Amino acid sequence: MQIQPILQTWGRVLTGRVPNLSIEITRECPLRCPGCYAYEDNHLGGDTNLRSLTDYKGDDLVRRVLSLVDEHKPLHLSIVGGDPLVRYRELEIVLPQLAERGIHVQVVTSAFRPIPTQWATLPRLRMTVSIDGLQPEHDLRRKPATYERVLRNIEGQHVAVHCTITGAMVRRAEYLRGFLDFWSENPNAEKIWFSIFTPQIGADSVECITADERTRVIQTLLDLRESYPKLDMPEGMLKAFLAPPHSPEKCVFARTTRTISADFKTHVEPCQLGGAPDCSRCGCIASMGLSAIGNHKLLGPLTAGSIFFASASIGDAFKRSRNRKLPEHPSPKTDTELITIDQNPKREVA
Ligand code: SF4
Ligand code: SF4
């Protein structure tokens, strides 16, 4: 386990700051994937939805992303959407500047258009390409970002391939092995990651998997990781899928990540999924990765997670006392200042 990022995260949490930032950089996406949480009506809490938000382009978008980053100073930034490649021209300006700031950046895309060649050499940038299973299923769900197009568009890159496991995949024998066989062979795919579909509370769509299926799929991945080195999911992370956090308050990912939507004002809560996600059926790889770190024993029964939650309480108290010292009627000059001052502690994830 790498200690430096944990200490950096701990330092931020202790002072009431959130170490991870996620920006839904655009409301646009040329795809209509079944089960996409970003376009669910309750993704932004029900009063509005992603398609109805104002979003930005050109210099305006570049300026907003950089000033939000400079304000929050995250250790890690996720750029999601919609599909961020809709705004690839703006990203061509933004990504090198984020690299200069030393920030770790992940861009999550369907790769419906080519990933610019020069991004392959940017330090600390991870391009993550969402692939919905093997070609027949993927092409049905993700047209126009078909396998043929994705394979062309990731040429010369070193992407992480991310697949969200759905009910249809777990009910077909050897499906995940077939997926790993295919993508392990591809020289442009450096890592392979799986999430499990996370439904909203009460949802029972075809994407959902049962508790028994979850147990079986995790055992399958624990076995497969021995023979597929690109499957970048440590044992502790996979085991965390068997006991997801009970609630957003108990989720290290939700409490360490602030997600801002395309208008640069709306917060996505309680986590990146938005709406009312069913934590008991959470299959988010980011949440499980951080849970695994939280489960790590530091000293006797003392886990990193117990220290984190104690630190977060201290950080919350610190933030409340700092906010009490703010002038009563500050006059914000920019939208990013507005975001900071408009934070209602009850709505915050950290
Ligand atoms: S590519 Fe992503 S944002 Fe676009 S519809 Fe599919 S899942 Fe949603
Ligand atoms: S990421 Fe965290 S808050 Fe969101 S559904 Fe999963 S466990 Fe719940």
By CATH reckoning, the class would read Alpha Beta
**Which fold name is given in CATH as the topology?**
pyruvate-formate lyase- activating enzyme
State the helix count: 13
Q: How many structurally independent domains?
A: 1
Q: End-to-end span in angstroms?
A: 24 Å
Give an overview in words.
This protein has a single domain, classed as pyruvate-formate lyase- activating enzyme (Alpha-Beta Horseshoe), CATH 3.80.30. The protein has helices spanning 3-14, 58-72, 88-100, 135-142, 147-153, 167-170, 175-184, 211-224, 235-240, 252-256, 285-295, 304-324, 335-341; strands at residues 20-24, 76-80, 104-109, 125-130, 159-165, 189-196, 257-260, 267-268, 297-299, 302-303. The protein has 350 residues and is of the alpha/beta class. The chain is 38% helix and 14% strand. α1 runs parallel beside α12, α2 (58-72) packs parallel to α3 (88-100) and α11 (285-295) crosses α12 (304-324). Strands 6-5-4-3-2-1-7-8 form an eight-stranded mixed sheet. The protein is globular and about 55 Å long. 40% of the residues are buried. Bound molecules: iron/sulfur cluster (SF4) (2 copies). One iron/sulfur cluster is lined by residues 29, 31-33, 36, 38, 81-83, 110. Residues 325-336 have a biased composition (Basic and acidic residues). Keywords: Iron, Iron-sulfur, Metal-binding, S-adenosyl-L-methionine. This is Fe-S protein, radical SAM family. Its cofactor is [4Fe-4S] cluster.
